[in-house]
Write a structure and sequence with these properties.
Distance between the termini: 74 Å
Shape: globular
Number of strands: 15
Strand order of the largest sheet: 3-4-5-7-6-13-14-10-9-8
Radius of gyration: 25 Å
Structural class: alpha+beta
Strand content: 15-25%
Largest sheet: 10 strands, antiparallel
């Protein structure tokens, strides 16, 4: 193991996690974790990619019996190895602050690369993600099959069931995750560092997502474990963040089930250095709000129902966004099947996104509604049942902006579908593929499949389904009746402003 330990230490020096003077100390830290007594420093260090060095060390630990042979246990162990080489939080914060004074982008560039170098962002796994672009009538939609988030294998699931339950940290976003060793049902975070921020005069933190759905995918989270809430202060926080980091967008998931994100228990936003198709969408119907004549506003050309407001003054955006949110929460239009509440359960909320374009700040306010019916038990404004073979999960912030995060099963299923199409096999009795049977039957009527075109056809048709998914999630359909209903809400808004 000597060459792999030395290879890991050399990597840490190269990536400036440690200095040359630290090499013996660092090697001894790794020896302790590996339960090895000595090392020969004259051994030639392994010159391999980081993930391959870590695999060699983990395989040794499994062979020796002090690490279990399952995905979660292995991840816990290789994170422990990396954690031994990562600088203390105060060093990271001091360097970030120093760079921020020079230029905010310089600071985030450094922190993002640092988060990759520590293996907190596992580049080798992210490289396996399947990505393509679908040219929709609303602009280019990003389609991804995400493979970087590890799926628990049966051994790990069994181990998690028998593991003692713990309330520490309370969730995967809490500050207490920084440096935490993890357990079989909670990821290790010894290589994780967070940056304190002040937004709306309160303490928040910046980190990057370990799964990186898009460039510099960051998470901004409350220092307190408090539930998600979209309100006036949320708009202020979003715009405060954009003022701190004008090269980043930032948005919040909605705060209700079905239309919200996967973690509603901890207030947080997601942002990054990426331009989604939604940000490029043009206003197709201008709106004018009394008292806010200097705020540019309108309905944008997008499959979901979005009001965009833009101004050089952030406080005007906060005030107007709060009026729109308050009006929407209390708005019912039975003809458009929009109900503010049923049996005391609220349904209306907003997914807000903030960005800066030139001298102007923008807020995109996406109208959401989580009502369910017998025909649509998962949500009326949710992917409908006929699309569940591709996308069944909630439409959260990332999808709202035009990036499909599709389940990892689709990589295998699309490859299998290609083979069955080309060999003429009937998939109705195929346990894995039968859910796609109706879809494939329609595609066979539409296309002549060949070895050369089948894969691309399937990918483009998946993109078309995602476009339809977004249209399903829009509370106002893109029809003349839908447009008229949307404008009725705009008129209602102006009456609320007068009141």
């Amino acid at each position: 193991m000597d060459k792999y330990i030395l290879g890991l230490v050399n990597y840490a020096v190269e990536k400036e996690l440690i200095e040359e003077d630290d090499k013996i100390w660092a090697a001894n830290r790794i020896l302790e974790i590996m339960q090895i007594d000595s090392i020969d420093f004259s051994e030639k260090a392994a010159d391999l990619p980081l993930h391959e060095i870590l695999e060699k060390l983990v395989d040794y630990a499994v062979l020796k019996g002090f690490v279990e042979d399952n995905t979660m246990a292995k991840d816990l162990f290789d994170t422990k190895l990396m954690g031994a080489l990562v600088p203390m939080p105060h060093d990271i914060r001091r360097n970030f602050s120093k760079l921020y004074k020079e230029n905010p982008k310089k600071a985030t560039d450094w922190f993002y690369h640092f988060s990759q170098n520590t293996n907190y962002i596992r580049n080798d796994r992210i490289a396996k993600d399947v990505k393509w672009v679908y040219k929709s009538k609303y602009g280019p939609l990003d389609i991804t099959i995400n493979l970087s988030k590890p799926e628990k294998d049966p051994k790990a699931i069994a181990a998690a069931k028998s593991a003692p339950q713990s309330g520490y940290p309370k969730c995967q976003l809490c500050t207490e995750n920084e440096g935490y060793s993890g357990r079989i049902n909670h990821p290790a975070r010894q290589n994780h560092r967070i940056i304190p921020l002040t937004i709306n005069n309160s303490l928040w933190y910046l980190q990057y997502s370990p799964y990186v759905y898009y460039n510099e995918h960051c998470i901004v989270f409350n220092s307190e474990h408090t539930p998600m809430k979209v309100d006036k202060t949320a708009f202020r926080k979003l715009l405060d963040f954009v003022e701190l980091f004008p090269h980043y967008f930032v948005g919040s998931n909605a705060d209700l089930p079905i239309v919200g994100g996967s973690i509603l228990s901890h207030d947080h936003f997601q942002g990054g250095n990426y331009t989604f198709a939604m940000a490029k969408a043009e206003i197709e119907e201008e709106l004018f709000f009394r008292g806010y004549e200097d705020v540019k506003a309108g309905i944008i050309k997008w499959p979901m129902s979005v009001i965009r407001i833009s101004s050089k003054e952030t406080q005007k955006l906060v005030d107007l966004a709060d009026i729109i949110l308050s009006a929407w929460r209390n708005y019912t239009d039975k003809d458009a099947f929009i109900y503010a509440e049923t049996d005391g359960e609220p349904h209306n909320t907003i997914t807000p996104i903030a960005r800066k374009k030139g001298d102007f700040y923008e807020l995109d306010l996406v109208l959401r509604n989580n009502i369910t019916t017998k025909d649509h038990p998962l949500g009326v404004y949710h992917p409908h049942a006929n699309l569940h073979h591709i996308k069944k999960e909630n439409i959260g912030l990332i999808e709202v902006m035009g990036l499909a995060v599709l389940p990892s099963r689709l990589k295998t299923e699309l490859a299998m579908l290609k083979d069955t199409i080309l060999c003429g096999e009937d998939i109705k009795n195929n346990e894995i593929l039968s859910k796609h049977a109706d879809w494939i039957s329609k595609l066979k009527e539409k296309y002549i499949f060949t070895e050369e075109n089948t894969e691309n056809i399937l990918k483009q048709e998946v993109g078309a389904i995602f476009e339809e998914v977004l249209e399903d999630a829009g509370v106002y359909k893109r029809t003349s009746d839908g447009k008229a209903a949307f404008l009725r809400f705009a008129e209602y808004l102006n009456r609320e402003i007068l009141l």
